[in-house]
Amino acid sequence: MARLIDADALKxxxxxxxxRTSPSAxxxxxxILLEDVDEAPTIDAxxxxxxxxxxxxxxxxxxxxxxxDALECSVCEEPNYEMSKYCPxxxxxxxxxx
Length: 98
Description:
- The structure is a single chain.
- The protein starts with 6 loop residues before the first helix and ends with a strand.
- With about 100 residues, it is an alpha+beta fold.
- The protein folds into two domains: about 5-40, no CATH class; about 50-95, no CATH class.
- The strands form two sheets. It has a three-stranded antiparallel beta sheet, with no helix packed on it. It has a two-stranded parallel ribbon with strand order 1-5.
- The model has no long low-confidence stretch (mean pLDDT about 85).
- β2 and β3 (about 65-75) form a beta hairpin.
- The protein is built from three helices and five strands; from the N terminus they run αααβββββ.
């Protein structure tokens, strides 16, 4: 089973270690690196939020007087002008409409 580790905590640990030793000395001991990854603290994953882009009845200015039809995230209701895979505001994964 996959395990989610706290990459920031591991990076912080190795930043301190690198300041005290040379990076090449660390890389010469891969078993220690693997052990540290195994012992790294875990994090809880946030559940994936799913949403859909829905059309709204107004336009958004995308620069220099250019307006495009607006879309709205069904999760956070923030406007957007492109059908991206994720909402740039709340991170919801957008369902692909067939």
